[in-house]
Design a protein that fits this description.
globular, alpha/beta, five-stranded parallel beta sheet, 2 domains, Arc Repressor Mutant, subunit A
């Protein structure tokens, strides 16, 4: 994957952080654009093409959650990396529910930001290069073109990350997939801290495809391993990972 034609929008009201990211990302070979507020960032996101958006959460008037939610309501599937000083699991869940793909807590190392950028761009590039034909297994059908799933004739909209997780599990249907494999295949990297990120996204996916999340029919937790998809509705009772 070449970086020279990849365009990244950086949205942050902190001049120092925005300029630092603009410099380091730019010198790494990416094209950059910036916005100083949520309103400006949303306007640029909707009016221009970007390969990725880096989005601060804590901004006055329009925060990053609102920007991200509006980006997804506009059906833009551009990868979104959120940067924030708020790093609790509740904050992360809120960001993922708004459609963010990844979440990095301030203060951060620039090299970590670049790692996340490469992983998200590679994942998005791989998705674009894949066949857009419908994939079906049992009661579950996924529609790559629209990032949707159909479960027993009920259509649900997925975030890009939820779609990638479901796609990964469908490639290994009826077999346990460990957390390290999910991190590698969906995000392209892994760490102990990011295991919680996987659980948050799986929880969001489960809410969308299961009628009863406490007694899942399709998406099962495999104790001390990870997750298993049983698209025909067979599987063990859900257990805490």
């Amino acid at each position: 994957m070449t970086t020279s034609n990849k365009r990244i929008l950086i949205v942050d009201d902190d001049d120092e952080i925005r300029e630092l990211l603009e410099f380091d990302i730019g010198t790494s070979g990416y094209l950059t654009d910036t916005a100083k507020s949520g309103e400006e960032g949303l306007k640029k996101a909707l009016e221009n093409h970007y390969d990725m958006i880096i989005l601060d959460v804590m901004m006055p008037k329009m925060d990053g959650y609102t920007v991200c939610k509006n980006i997804r309501l506009s059906r833009l599937n551009v990868p979104v990396l959120m940067l924030t000083a708020k790093g609790t699991i509740t904050d992360k869940t809120t960001g993922f529910d708004c459609g963010a793909d990844d979440y990095l807590v301030k203060p951060f190392e620039v090299q970590e930001v670049l790692l996340r950028i490469r992983a998200l761009l590679r994942r998005n590039e791989d998705k674009v290069s894949q066949s857009v034909e419908v994939l079906r297994a049992g009661d579950i059908e996924i529609l790559p073109d629209s990032l949707e799933a159909v479960v027993v004739d009920k259509k649900v909209k997925l975030t890009p990350t939820e779609f990638e997780i479901l796609f990964c599990l469908m490639q290994h249907m009826n077999s346990p997939v460990n957390l390290a494999t999910l991190l590698d295949e969906v995000w392209g990297y892994g760490s102990d801290e990011d295991v919680r990120m996987v659980r948050v996204h799986v929880g969001g996916l489960r809410q969308k495809i299961e009628a009863d999340t406490r007694n899942p029919k399709y998406l099962h937790t495999v104790l001390n391993v990870g997750y298993k998809l049983t698209p025909f509705g067979f599987g063990e009772d859900d257990k805490k990972a």
